[in-house]
Write a structure and sequence with these properties.
This protein has about 350 residues and is an alpha+beta fold. The protein has a single domain, classed as DD-peptidase/beta-lactamase superfamily (Beta-lactamase). It is built from ten helices and 16 strands. The strands form five sheets. The protein has a seven-stranded antiparallel sheet, sandwiched between helices. Strands 6-10-7 form a three-stranded antiparallel sheet. It has a two-stranded antiparallel ribbon with strand order 3-4. A hairpin with a 2-residue loop joins β11 and β12. The protein is globular, with a radius of gyration of 20 Å. About 50% of the residues are buried.
Length: about 350
């Protein structure tokens, strides 16, 4: 891992990359450090190292705070409820959440076209009722009209969580466990808090650069709103390994099945991955590189996580990094895009040399 002066990593403290095609894991590697810093020094704009013998190397089995990759799981649960008839994509949200203003639909939540603002300061409110008052007020006076322009918003998936819990009578963590992680045997995927060993650290979260004073975080969700909502939220909160995410990628590329388990039907998977994508972003070059432009789908997470699925070549890429260790900064997706471009060119080169063509 190349480093800048004063111990600051070039992009992240450490990372895990896993790429595959068909049933084969073609590349799997770890580099850098899962834990290196004990705090962030704002005066010198640098991380303060732990004693050298306490640095923990990144491993391919390191568990990461997935941040917004959690939205993909919420979207899959939503489609599962559509398949079993409890939910319709064109249901108005207020039919399931009476406190929500009329107008917006489930589909608009999944496509970020509900008009809701990107976020609200739930972390500044004490108690669920006070937090949800913010959401109801936003729904009554959204930043844009429902069904209008795409406006990426955590509130869409927080609202979707509330809808799913209302129609099923179960918490989101139970729905994810029973509908996705248990059938796919994703044993390292769960909501926190987690015991720190084996988990990549995130940031030293203190005001004024953070929205709360929590110190160095490890095994506890970094997103302040997910934390304020109890650690289980529709937009963030899940932790997982690259290997577990590879299983999810294979299931989706296989039309919803992995081994003897099926989490979705092929039609529901197509709804998730076809433009405009339900929860998944489609053809976004800023992190998909040259995989974009042919129907690739995926998502990023603020902590440095991402995954991309390319149905055209039956390939996938998982890149997990702790870019916010020891301090969160604006997310630079150039390394993600470069990794995706390497995969795209590797698949093309293989076909050019007489290897199997894309299915």
């Amino acid at each position: 891992m190349r480093e800048l002066p004063e111990g600051r990593p070039a992009w992240c403290a450490g990372a895990v990359v896993l790429a595959g095609r068909g049933p084969v894991v073609a590349a799997e590697a770890a580099a850098g450090w899962a834990v290196r810093y004990r705090a962030f020094d704002p005066e010198r704009d640098r991380g303060l190292d732990l004693p050298r013998d306490l640095w923990e190397p990144m491993r391919v089995g390191t568990v990461f705070d997935l941040a917004s990759l959690s939205k993909l799981f919420t979207a899959i649960v939503a489609l599962q409820q559509v398949e079993c008839g409890r939910l319709d994509l064109d249901d108005e949200v207020h039919t399931h959440l009476p406190a929500f203003a009329p107008g917006g639909t489930i589909r608009q939540l999944l496509t970020h076209t509900s008009g809701l603002s990107p976020e609200l300061p739930f972390h500044d409110r004490t108690g669920r009722a006070a937090q949800l008052e913010l959401l109801w007020a936003q729904a009554a006076a959204p930043a844009g009209p429902p069904g209008g322009a795409r406006r990426y918003s955590d509130l869409n998936f927080i609202t979707l969580q509330l809808v799913l819990e209302s129609v099923t009578g179960h918490r989101l963590d139970a729905l994810v466990r029973e509908g996705i992680t248990r059938p796919l045997d994703m044993v390292s995927t769960s909501y926190g808090p987690l015991a720190p060993p084996g988990v990549a650290a995130t940031e030293d979260q203190r005001r004024p650069w953070g929205k709360a004073d929590r110190g160095m975080l490890r095994g506890v969700v970094h997103d302040e709103n997910a934390w304020a909502l109890g650690g289980v939220a529709g937009h963030a909160g899940l932790f997982a390994t690259a290997q577990d995410l590879a299983v999810l990628c294979r299931a989706l590329l296989n039309g919803g099945a992995y081994g003897t388990a099926r989490i979705l039907g092929a039609e529901a998977v197509a709804a998730l991955l076809d433009p405009p994508g339900l929860g998944f972003g489609v053809d976004q070059p800023y992190f998909m590189g040259e995989l974009a432009g042919r129907g690739a789908a995926g998502h990023t997470g603020f902590t440095g996580t991402s995954l991309v699925l390319d149905r055209a070549t039956d390939t996938f890429l998982v890149l997990l990094a702790n870019t916010v260790h020891p301090r969160r900064t604006g997310g630079d997706s150039a390394p993600r895009a470069r990794a995706a471009t390497c995969l795209a060119r590797a698949v093309t080169d293989r076909a050019d040399r007489g290897g199997p063509a894309a299915p």
